[in-house]
Q: What sequence folds into this?
């Protein structure tokens, strides 16, 4: 498994940052690795969806759980990626801290390339957090 951790301080309220990160249908605006989202269902606070990722236009199934104003938990349930992406929000010195933790691997024969994509995902996540910061600080 590849564990990827990134953080950013945002000069905006936790509420404002939450409004951005919890709008999961708007994810491709900030996360360039996500090209497209197709919602399948929403049951008991769990969003099931299919996403198309930038890596060879692969499709992945996900379950997303929103923990209001605290965390967005994404579980990759089927496709080339296995594992989780967790976005945590916390209030710190009048600012909002946004932490993202990936714990993933590529599935099947692609698993041997997990280490190679780690830096790519880290870079994409850093860019996504910067995009979120810029939006929240407007």
A:
């Amino acid at each position: 498994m590849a564990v990827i951790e990134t953080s950013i301080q945002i000069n905006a309220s936790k509420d404002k940052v939450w409004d951005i990160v919890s709008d999961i249908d708007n994810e491709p605006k900030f996360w360039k690795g996500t090209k497209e989202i197709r919602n399948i269902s929403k049951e008991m606070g769990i969003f099931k969806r299919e996403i198309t990722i930038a890596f060879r236009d692969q499709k992945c199934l996900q379950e997303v759980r929103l923990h209001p104003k605290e965390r967005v938990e994404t579980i990759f349930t089927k496709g080339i990626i296995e594992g989780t992406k967790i976005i945590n929000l916390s209030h710190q010195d009048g600012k909002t801290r946004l932490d993202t933790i990936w714990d993933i691997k590529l599935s099947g024969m692609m698993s041997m390339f997990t280490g190679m994509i780690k830096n790519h995902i880290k870079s994409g996540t850093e860019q996504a957090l910067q995009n979120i910061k810029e939006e929240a600080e407007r």
In short: The chain has one domain: 2-136. The chain has a mean pLDDT of 94.
